[in-house]
Amino acid sequence: MTTTQLTPEQIAFYHEHGYLHIPRVFTQAETDELASELDWMMDKWAWPDASWTGPWRKIYMNADVEKKSKLVGMHDLQFYSSAWSRGVTNPNLVRCMVDLLGANVELHHTTMHVKPPETGHPFPMHQDNAFYPHADGRYVDVLMHLDNTRHENGEIRFLPGSHKAGYLPHITQTADGPCTPHLPTDKYSLADTVPVPASRGDVVIFNIFTIHGSHLNQTNEARRLVRLGYRNVDNVQVGGQSKGRPGLMVAGRRNRHSGQELFTTEISITNPVAPLKKDAEPAPAVR
Fold first, then answer.
1. Where are the alpha helices (DSSP H) in the chain?
2. Cα(47)–Cα(283) distance, integer angstroms
3. Going from the N-terminus, what domains does the chain have, and what CATH number goes with each?
4. What is the pLDDT of residues 78-90, one digit of tens each?
5. Which of 83, 117, 119, 257 has the fewest CB atoms nearer than 10 Å to its CB?
């Protein structure tokens, strides 16, 4: 990389607040193509009724909406569409990741986050590290915007500076059984967050430890976002989504450490690339 995408002020803002809005990372033509491919995947591949569980639902939604509220989600869009393979290696985006993560950057995963019209899922306050824990904060989540976002359709919202506290314990169990990880609703509220609306082609990025959430989609159109996760290649994953799976190097090199072997070419039951059975429970889509 020979140029710097982010200014010193933007880099300082990210490190201080734990998030950053970067306008016009993708061109209109690139955004149109990615949106078209996402719509195709929603029709042919995605889970149409993914959902987060937990007692927070009754706090964020009334009984009628709570019964109907769903998400449309799937993981690793680059496995299904060449347009998304190009999207995750977009030079403008990769330059931003190098500025924040260093010269050696690995794509960890991508996840579709579509809030359907009128009852598209809100998200309780949480940190993404609860879903794919890593050893340190050298991990940036990127929300690629395929639609304009605002309060009415559930834009992303953050607790500024919350990443500095590191990982916080999440609620994962209730009297009724396991639930999707989230922070206690009596301590962490969407009312205390800063909204970050954005336009098509923009990205909103945040640290893996930054606390965030979003409101219900109240509009008559879907809100389409895709999360792209990037990490410094030496930031070790300790659990959760895609653990043990190598990611695509989008910048630099994967340095070899003492005793490290080549990646296996075999598929095993622990390999997330292995085919998912039709009746299998999908991993929860975040946000």
1. 8-17, 28-44, 56-60, 63-68, 82-88, 91-101
2. 10
3. 8-251 (2.60.120.620)
4. 999 999 999 999 9
5. 257
